[in-house]
UniProtKB/TrEMBL annotation:
This is Dihydroxy-acid dehydratase. It comes from the Bacteria. The lineage of its organism: Bacteria, Bacillati, Actinomycetota, Actinomycetes, Streptosporangiales.
Length: 41
């Protein structure tokens, strides 16, 4: 139901990154989502 989705959206928080530096961080910062073709910028 829409009310449940609204409740979940209101309480959602972005997860913290597990990696703060290095190659994986560069990858996370530059890769696009799969719906965009998962290309790197």
């Amino acid at each position: 139901p829409e009310a449940e989705l609204d409740r979940r959206r209101a309480s959602w928080q972005r997860p913290e990154r597990e990696v703060e530096r290095g190659v994986l961080t560069k990858y996370v910062a530059t890769v696009r989502s799969a719906s965009d073709g998962a290309v790197t910028a």
